[in-house]
Write a structure and sequence with these properties.
- This protein is α+β, with helices and mostly antiparallel strands.
- It is 32% helix and 30% strand.
- The chain has one domain.
- It has a four-stranded antiparallel beta sheet with strand order 1-2-3-4, with helices on one face.
- The radius of gyration is 11 Å and the shape is globular.
Length: 71
């Protein structure tokens, strides 16, 4: 996939709807895009999006997105 704001956000949304709206930084270089999430504790976590549309998200990020979705 071509890395554009829309395409990366769509891949994040497909993985978990909250991923596409809660990042604090979004960028790409080469074959990966990175979305950075900052939690209330000021911890930063990175989610990797690959050109094939797959998303690699740490468990801590997924747990936080589930909490947000439940509110």
């Amino acid at each position: 996939m071509e890395f554009t704001y829309q395409n990366v956000n769509d891949a994040l949304n497909k993985h978990h709807p909250e991923l596409s709206s809660n990042w604090t930084f979004l960028g790409w270089e080469g074959d990966t895009a990175t979305a950075t999430y900052t939690f209330d504790s000021n911890e930063q976590h990175k989610v990797i999006i690959r050109r094939d549309g797959t998303v690699e998200a740490p468990d801590a990020v997924m747990e936080e997105m589930d909490k947000i979705a439940c509110n």
